[in-house]
Design brief:
Layout (H helix, E strand, L loop, with lengths): L1 H10 L7 H11 L28 H5 L4 H4 L5 H42 L1 H9 L1
Helix pairs in contact: 1-2, 1-5, 5-6
Length: about 130
């Protein structure tokens, strides 16, 4: 999304650098992470799920593997459409992430409660 926003600014004449020249700054900026509504997610030691190769993520259907090489050739209208689809995809992922963290919080609270009530339960469970 940051790359698309840059490209649209470049086309409006607000940027004089090429995408390649600006890439280090775009990637280092953190994008929307600087907004006041952004909060860093809690880090979880989770193994990524196996993703079947025959399916594609919704984001992969929006952006082809060679998307960046064709970015200058994409019309402003199409860029706007892609940006809208990416924004919606990001919103969905954020909602799903929020749900996962809510469940994690409930589970963490329950494990903590059980450990406080019976600290030996954890040891007995691990010995099994």
């Amino acid at each position: 999304m940051d790359l698309l926003a840059f490209e649209l600014r470049r086309r409006r004449g607000e940027e004089t650098r090429s995408l390649i020249d600006a890439l280090p700054d775009i990637l280092a900026d953190g994008g929307e992470g600087n907004s006041p509504h952004f909060t860093m997610p809690k880090l979880l030691p989770v193994d990524p799920p196996d993703i079947p190769m025959d399916g594609r993520r919704s984001i992969d259907r929006v952006l082809a593997d060679d998307f960046l090489t064709h970015l200058p050739d994409i019309s402003d209208e199409e860029l706007g459409e892609i940006q809208l689809v990416l924004t919606n995809a990001e919103r969905k992922v954020s909602e799903q992430r929020r749900s996962v963290y809510e469940v994690l919080e409930i589970l963490t609270d329950e494990v903590t409660r059980r450990y406080r009530e019976d600290p030996g339960a954890v040891t007995r469970l691990l010995e099994q």
